[in-house]
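Input record (one chain):
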Amino acid sequence: MRYMDDLKLTRRDLLIAGALTATAAAVPTVAGAQAQPAAGRVDSPTPPVMSKVALTVNGQSRELDVDTRTTLLDALRENLHLTGTKKGCDQGQCGACTVIVDGRRINSCLSLAVMHNGAQVTTIEGLGTPDKLHPMQAAFVKHDGYQCGYCTPGQICSAVSVLDEIRKGIPSHVTGDLTQAPLLSAAEIRERMSGNICRCGAYSNILDAITEVAGGKA
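The corresponding structure, as predicted from the sequence alone:
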């Protein structure tokens, strides 16, 4: 069994082979570490790209100089200090940031301010004031359409737009006949308001408020 004799290794041979293997494995790690920036080194940050944006917000002309990455929501809250519009999920899922832009409701957290240069923007502050409430605001108070109130500005802006959509004949997912104007119904309202989440669960009261206003001017 000569081939067995050829395979015999001494303890010294094994130690040498193990050391060589460990060294070979460590070489890429050391090389990678040397390629990294020196400890404590901080590269200069890239300055933001700024842009001027002209908006008409609640009937007033406003001109902003904002970072091009600024959302419409942050521009309203941080630059114009209109904090009635709320930041909830910041992912377009809760509806707390809903505002009306050029007659249509949008999630302002998903839209960049620079996309709306020249636009007409209505926030909850522009719908009514404590002294002169919008009919929808008054109906929410009457029917207790809020509890904590955090989602209420977005709920009200959506509710106003929902009635406008129905009046214009814009169908929804539950509209039965797409060749005719949608009928005002609980199903239509619930479907159209489904993008606005109320974690307090005041949905039935919100429906009552919208239904009451539906017969009047919203």
